[in-house]
TrEMBL record, chain A:
This is Urease accessory protein UreG. Keywords: Chaperone, Cytoplasm, GTP-binding, Nickel insertion, Nucleotide-binding. InterPro entries: CobW/HypB/UreG_nucleotide-bd, P-loop_NTPase, UreG. The gene is ureG. The keyword GTP-binding applies. PANTHER family: UREASE ACCESSORY PROTEIN G. Belongs to the SIMIBI class G3E GTPase family. UreG subfamily. It comes from Nakamurella endophytica. It is found in: Cytoplasm. GTP binds at residues 23-30.
Length: 254, 240
């Protein structure tokens, strides 16, 4: 019996590179995918899988955006389990990705959009090779500091809609600096569809990761179920404690 | 993978466990479409019972037939089977018989999608089992036929396999109800327990099926019509 339960990238991958896009509702995941399709579809063969929580709204938005052949955009139902569908039982998504790869072979990249949920949802490396976590300035300048596995350890953090900063009272530079500090130097891009250099930074990052995948040098990384975090506890010296979940089962989170 | 009774007992539990990674969380056993069409919540126990007498009986019977087509209890194919030494062709005959008795294209497509998820699992867990190799040769087999092949690879008895399908169907309805029309979860669990006699009766009927001609043809027009409407719905939590 094989123990190879998580696919490992081989030296010469024949399937498409799989990129996950996660992040809270309304931060611009679908718009980011539309942007990537618009920027890259001339040079890369693309497919998209969406994971809407209650509707096929995201798939319909992307089809109507006219940035990709509608047949290359598939919606997966998650049974109200958007976390499960991208993390502990990725079967439905894997089948949708494999269908796209078979129907439009050869594809260079399949983008998988998570159901917009909350700060804790991240993709399993069994489904995607790399993942982008998306925040937006309109969600508040403090969100990046709150951390979480996606913010802390996704392959790329995008702080979206930077052009809205002045209108929502958010210091964009500070928010990007907070995000960078939370990520120990992992990449952060402040993005606006009206800011051409930011778009080029995004596509440049993606081309670099894709080149790594194609050369066999890329290793999929799990951001983890939970980031190290702080528990308030008045009886504890210092008012609480910080810990990571390496010690499984030490306590529950209410 | 070891075969025999200990593995069979665990495999039976795994197949009944919604945590098995085969995409079960995408399913409501038609409940979402039924509620959307106006079926009242107090009818859910009768809905479970109706499924067990119709679509679930057909699916469980097809699974049993696939199981016995691969591993006849006495080592020889049952009387009534065409003499075909190729197990994949015997499974294809079961799949065709199931298809002919499954009216709704949406339900057939959903079954084949679930079959792929299960086949993906089976191909990894029992890569060398002749039953799994045979079912892989079918391309896109129904869930019932893949379950029969898994049952064969793990050494499940026909009645045990049919019981798994009955339990899974009732529990899928109950679990989906908790997402769609939240209530005290104990109540939903009681539906499954109260369905026990119907599950046992269905499993006994299914376990006795020995040839494709014996496969029950019990349709459920409302279940099938609701499934067709649900497949076209733009706002839904569950695939089926």
């Amino acid at each position: 019996m094989t123990t190879d339960l998580v696919p490992t990238p081989t030296a010469a991958p024949t399937r498409a590179f799989r990129l996950g896009i996660a992040g809270p509702v309304g931060t611009g995941k679908s718009s980011l995918i539309a942007l990537l399709c618009r920027e890259l579809s001339a040079e890369l063969a693309l497919g998209v899988v969406t994971n809407d929580i209650y509707t096929d709204e995201d798939a319909r938005f992307l089809r109507s955006a006219g940035v990709l052949d509608p047949q290359r955009i598939r919606a997966v139902e998650t049974g109200a389990c958007p976390h499960t569908a991208i993390r502990d039982d990725v079967t439905a998504n894997l089948l949708a990705v494999e269908d796209l790869e078979a129907d439009f072979a050869p594809l260079d990249m399949v983008l998988v959009e998570s159901g917009g949920d909350n700060l804790t949802a991240t993709f399993s490396p069994a489904l995607v090779d790399a993942q982008i976590f998306v925040l937006d300035v309109a969600g508040g300048g403090d969100v990046a500091r709150k951390g979480g596995p996606g913010i802390g350890r996704a392959d790329l953090l995008v702080v979206n809609k930077t052009d809205l900063g002045p209108y929502v009272g958010v210091d964009v530079e500070q928010m990007v600096a907070d995000a960078s500090a939370a990520r120990d130097g992992r990449p952060v891009i402040g993005l606006s569809r009206t800011d051409r250099p930011s778009i080029e930074a995004l596509t440049g990052w993606l081309r670099g990761v894709l080149a790594g995948f194609r050369s066999g040098g890329h290793v999929a990384v799990d951001p983890g179920p939970m980031a190290p975090h702080f528990h308030a506890d008045e009886d504890h010296p210092g008012g609480g404690y910080v810990h990571a979940h390496d010690d499984a089962g030490s306590h529950t989170h209410g | 993978m070891a075969t025999g009774a200990p593995a069979a007992a665990v495999v039976q539990l795994l197949l009944a466990d919604s945590r098995l990674p085969v995409g079960a969380h995408t399913q409501s056993a038609g409940l979402e479409g039924a509620l959307a069409a106006g079926m009242p919540v107090h009818d859910v126990p009768r809905y479970i019972d109706a499924r067990l007498r119709t679509v679930t009986l057909v699916e469980a019977s097809a699974a049993v037939l696939a199981l016995t087509a691969l591993a006849p209890a006495d080592g020889t194919p049952a009387a009534g089977w065409p003499v075909d030494p190729d197990p994949a062709r015997r499974l294809a005959a079961v799949d065709a018989a199931w298809h002919a008795r499954s009216v709704s294209p949406a339900l057939r497509e959903n079954s084949r999608l679930l079959g792929r998820g299960l086949l993906r699992l089976a191909a990894r867990l029992w890569p060398d089992a002749s039953a799994v190799r045979a079912v892989r040769a079918l391309g896109r087999p129904s869930r019932a036929v893949v379950l029969g092949a898994v049952g064969s690879a793990a050494g499940l008895a026909p009645a045990d396999l049919a019981t798994v399908l009955g339990y899974d169907d009732a529990q899928t309805v109950a679990a989906a109800a908790l997402k769609l029309v939240p209530m005290d979860p104990v109540e939903a669990t009681s539906w499954v327990l109260h369905a026990a006699p119907a599950i046992a009766g269905m499993a006994a009927r299914a376990a006795a099926v020995r040839t494709p001609e014996d496969l029950p043809a019990a349709a459920a027009p409302l279940v099938e019509a609701w499934a067709e409407a649900h497949a076209e719905a733009s706002a839904r939590l569950f695939r089926s």
